């Protein structure tokens, strides 16, 4: 009974270390570990001990007998990996490299700006050294970045990565300073004065434009904003998402994981989302939606699609369960049947076959070799002009899409661009506008200043990719500490909360985050949901401040939040 990996990897590598026969690959130190979508278990080598399943922090590993119908393709994918990449020279036990130690045992204080996956993986790497303590700052009152506000609500298994983050938060030397916006509430110079080093992990928060006429019309939105909207991100709760168009169609431009997430959330029966952590008002809008079809446009073919294989497997699984329909429009090109993506797409009906529209189920159309050339409408989005493309190989061998001149109109009431993220300029740091990143030498901007995550490498990889990225950056930081090239702090970092308080900033710590988390879970349990997210910053602060005071006194006839000091909400 072999065990099977069933979702993208968090790169914790606990399963690799736990496996007594080294049958899980790619492993740390192997070339593809840092970039692999997921890990694979060799069915021929698995001894059915279950150690990997016990070690996995996100419950991604199951015995093959417990796979659901939707998860069955992962059994073949695990076996197929070893047909292409055999590991016959495996050793009995995974090799764990020795832990690096700093040359000096003097106390070191590091600030990490950004509490998303990149920031928390960086904190984890730093706190492996007993000399180091870490303060993690974030402008929001809640941490965990895109795991909290970017993962689709129907993918609760992916959000289990927060278990790893909770373990990091409990490490000695860890401290949160949440609700603090660097550049507004405190400057880079003030951080440099108080810390031996500062690691910036602020991500890539902007989205790339389509560059076509009409994309600024009402009803043309960023998929990034929509994801934040239904996930309860405070910045996006006032977003106008109109799903009432008589056309019943939404067009999503781009075919990466974000595009599939948005398409799936908009076509699933809202009742399937009711028990998740989807934000309350967006759920109501989705429940009243007139959308019957979401068309996902990709300029190139399925072989060049940006979505990951696990995302496609999950989509096919929903079709097999009868929860929605998905059809494939290849634009006249043959299906790449010799690839895993091609074999999964072959399980779906072809658009050319004239698949009838089901009166009950909504559907997604995966349309390849198509690009928008204009968004049309008088006062709001009414249609998209779509051009067929063809693939051409450039002089460098890269395959590109070029327009054929053949166009058609797709009526729709909403256009969502999902063609990639782009990093914004960070105050007082160098910036490359072409890549949207802070230029660095493997994470080192200069001694004492470092970057990790998307601000370092651009918007690429998966949640787990941030672990190897953070390891590389922290390696540079430790090199500089050992070489003595960083400047020691001239101020005490412990005075930072008082400095911020003097500026009217209410700083939230780990206990405050735990209070918000507990309140969200309490509200969720009361309504049969995983959690009911608090989406208003002021309310988050009230919950945290109330928890500091303890239980409210009864029978006062006033809200327990109606008195006390006024707090300034972080933006």
Automatic annotation (TrEMBL):
Gene3D superfamilies: 3.30.70.20, FAD/NAD(P)-binding domain, NAD(P)-binding Rossmann-like Domain
Cofactor: FAD
Annotated spans, Disordered: 545-571
InterPro entries reported for this sequence: 4Fe4S_Fe-S-bd, 4Fe4S_Fe_S_CS, FAD/NAD-bd_sf, FAD/NAD-binding_dom, Ferredox_Rdtase
A GO molecular-function annotation: oxidoreductase activity
Keywords carried by this UniProt record: FAD, Flavoprotein, NADP, Oxidoreductase
Domain 4Fe-4S ferredoxin-type per the UniProt entry, residue ranges: 37-66
Protein name as catalogued: Unannotated protein
Native organism: freshwater metagenome
């Amino acid at each position: 009974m072999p065990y099977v990996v069933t979702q993208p990897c968090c790169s914790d590598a606990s399963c690799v270390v736990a496996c007594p026969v080294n049958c899980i690959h790619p492993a740390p130190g192997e070339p593809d570990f840092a970039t692999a979508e997921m890990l694979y278990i060799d069915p021929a080598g698995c001894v059915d001990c279950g150690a990997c399943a016990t070690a996995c922090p996100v419950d991604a590993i199951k015995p093959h007998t417990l796979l659901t119908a939707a998860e069955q393709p992962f059994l073949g994918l695990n076996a197929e990996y070893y047909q292409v990449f055999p590991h016959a020279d495996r050793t009995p036990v995974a090799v764990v490299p020795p832990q690096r130690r700093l040359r000096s045992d003097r106390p070191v204080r590091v600030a990490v700006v950004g509490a998303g996956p990149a920031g928390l993986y960086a904190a984890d790497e730093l706190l492996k050294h007993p000399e180091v303590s870490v303060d993690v700052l974030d402008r929001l009152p809640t941490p965990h970045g895109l795991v909290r506000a970017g993962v689709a609500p129907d993918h609760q298994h992916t959000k289990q990565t927060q278990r790893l983050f909770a373990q990091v938060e409990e490490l000695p030397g860890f401290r949160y300073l949440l609700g603090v916006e660097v550049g507004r509430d405190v400057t880079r110079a003030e951080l440099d004065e108080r810390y031996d080093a500062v690691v910036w992990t602020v991500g890539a928060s902007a989205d790339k434009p389509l560059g076509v006429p009409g994309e600024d019309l009402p009803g043309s939105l960023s998929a990034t904003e929509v994801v934040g909207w239904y996930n309860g991100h405070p910045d996006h709760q006032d977003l106008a998402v109109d799903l009432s168009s008589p056309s019943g169609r939404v067009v999503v431009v781009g075919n990466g994981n974000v595009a599939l997430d948005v398409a799936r959330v908009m076509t699933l029966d809202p009742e399937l989302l009711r028990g998740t952590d989807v934000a309350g008002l967006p759920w109501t809008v989705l429940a009243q939606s007139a959308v019957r079809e979401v068309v996902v446009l990709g300029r190139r073919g399925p072989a060049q699609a940006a979505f990951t294989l696990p995302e496609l497997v999950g989509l096919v699984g929903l079709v097999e369960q009868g929860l929605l329909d998905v059809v494939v429009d290849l634009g006249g090109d043959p299906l790449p049947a010799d690839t895993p993506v091609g074999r999964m797409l072959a399980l779906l009906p072809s658009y050319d076959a004239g698949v009838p529209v089901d009166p009950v189920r909504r559907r997604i159309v995966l349309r390849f070799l198509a690009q928008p050339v204009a968004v049309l409408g008088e006062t709001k989005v009414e249609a998209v002009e779509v051009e067929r493309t063809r693939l051409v190989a450039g002089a460098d061998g890269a395959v590109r899409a070029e327009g054929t001149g053949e166009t058609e109109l797709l009526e729709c009431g909403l256009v969502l661009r999902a063609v990639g993220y782009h990093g914004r300029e960070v105050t007082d740091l160098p910036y490359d506008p072409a890549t949207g990143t802070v230029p660095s030498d493997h994470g080192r901007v200069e001694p004492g200043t470092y970057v990790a995550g998307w601000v370092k490498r651009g918007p690429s990889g998966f949640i787990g990719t941030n672990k190897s990225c953070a390891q590389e950056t922290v390696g540079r930081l430790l090199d500089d500490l050992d070489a003595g090239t960083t400047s020691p702090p001239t101020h005490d970092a412990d005075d930072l909360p008082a400095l911020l308080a003097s500026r009217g900033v209410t700083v939230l710590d780990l206990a405050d985050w735990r209070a918000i988390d507990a309140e969200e879970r309490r509200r969720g349990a009361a309504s049969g949901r995983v959690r009911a997210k608090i989406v208003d910053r002021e309310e988050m602060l009230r919950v945290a401040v109330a928890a500091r005071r303890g239980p409210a006194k009864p029978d006062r006839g006033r809200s327990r939040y109606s008195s006390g000091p006024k707090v300034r909400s972080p933006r």
